Amino acid sequence: MVDVTVVGSGPNGLAAAVTAARAGLSVRIVEASDQLGGGLRSAELVESGFLHDVCAAVHPMALASPFFREVNLSSRVEFRTPELSYAHLIRPGESGLAWRDLERTAAGLGRDGGRWRFLFEPLVRDSAHVFRATLNAPLAAAPRDYLRLVAVGVRAGLVRGGRGWFSDERAAGLMAGLAAHSCQNPTALASSLIGVTLGVAAHADGWPVVVGGSQSIASALIIELRSLGVVFETGQTVTDIRDTADSPIVLLDVTPRSFADMASSQLDARVTRAYRRFRYGPGVAKVDITLDGAVPWSDPSIAQAGTVHFGGSAAEIVHSEREVIAGRYPDNPFILLSQPTVFDPSRAPAGKHTVWAYTHVPSGSARDQTDVIVRTIEAHAPGFRDLIRGIHHTSAEQYSHYNLSYVGGDINGGANTLRQIVARPRLGASPWRTPLLGVYLCSASTAPGPGVHGMAGHLAAKAAIADRYRVASL
Hints:
- This is Pyridine nucleotide-disulfide oxidoreductase domain-containing protein 2.
- Interacts with COX5B; this interaction may contribute to localize PYROXD2 to the inner face of the inner mitochondrial membrane.
- It holds the Pfam family Amino_oxidase.
- Probable oxidoreductase that may play a role as regulator of mitochondrial function.
- GO terms for molecular function: oxidoreductase activity.
- This protein is α/β, with parallel strands linked by helices.
- It has a domain at 4-43 and 213-278 and 410-469: FAD/NAD(P)-binding domain, CATH 3.50.50.
- The chain is built from 17 helices and 16 strands.
- The chain has helices at residues 11-22, 66-70, 102-107, 113-125, 127-134, 146-159, 169-180, 189-203, 215-227, 256-263, 269-276, 314-325, 370-380, 384-387, 396-402, 418-422, 455-469; strands at 4-7, 27-31, 42-43, 52-53, 79-80, 84-91, 94-99, 209-210, 231-234, 249-252, 283-291, 305-310, 335-338, 353-361, 388-394, 439-441.
- The strands form four sheets. Strands 7-6-12-13-14-11-15 form a seven-stranded mixed β-sheet, sandwiched between helices. A five-stranded parallel β-sheet has the order 9-2-1-10-16, with helices on one face.
- Helix 4 (113-125) crosses helix 8 and helix 5 (127-134) crosses helix 6 (146-159).
- The longest helix is centred in the middle third of the chain and has 15 residues, at 189-203.
- It is globular.
- The two termini are 23 Å apart.
- 57% of the residues are buried.
């Protein structure tokens, strides 16, 4: 018997285990895969000597995360933070640049520079408190943080996908690209909330990549867990919640749908249906590419960007994302790209590079999106095709099999609608708690939602320990 069983070893499962083990409890982690890490795995997907991130590659919320700061992750993992957080390519020869330096960004946006500054400057100045408020459950925020939530909400309401608020395509495109990370309609308030939060991170701590691949984050947490005596059971799938009955606290890094399947024998039918009604969003189709040289961007400044957005104008991004939500494949889709080897040359042989890129597709799609992604990159980097050594494609359908938490290829753990931001997966000050005594959800399907920040696991573990041992907080 152990005090705590954690099911799943993604960033939230590992964070939950660290939080419980640091509180002096005995912990075991049960992982269905033979490899720990969930969305933080890295592998040689294309050819030997080239390291790729299987899922997450750039981590906008990692340096902002209160949990990662609490465990001093930056002293164990080397983050490389580009000065150019992200670039948005509207068409060949026209792009918007979001530097970590807010003033430099505003200066490059012409007549929209003042509006960009108005949008982000107060939040960036107060970023530590903003992230403490946003990386929590909405009803669990401290009273002093509600003003920060209101400030983010007001700004999100103003920009709504960038259209209308900005007069120039560069600023509007930058904002639409941020909102499109939601995998929902970029003009929706929920998407704007996510976009504004990501924009604050871009100008505060930046959007870093990790030396040695994203697996380095998981490895650092695993090293600590081993030092704390945590037991790992890999290659073990929990299909029935009763298999964890020997632990008074159970933390599940799984989706609400998986929980309903695991606990159906213990739950009222109405409650089971409620968990199964949790909505999931579109999927992603990704390519990993090995290159004989760096991407030959037409605009050399793009090479400094840690993340590159494609998709045209703000209006075009809104159209393409709506098409995906409707189950169709747009001709000019929104695409995200990173070339990690620019900042971490250790991932490839000398002079060689890797590219990580994905696009949004209808849920469960089996379509190979390699051609449209390569064609789009080539339009902004003539000669790109000639540098390609090899390509590995992962469809949304394949992602759903790779990780059961990616339902239909949804890497966000659930649709980012306003309802599912406020109530993720249920409304309350402790949305991680389930109807089963001692059982808590702690995945990206719970507050505060997707991203590599560990906060869902950390907060769920704190809530579970407080409930069990009748303590106010840890």
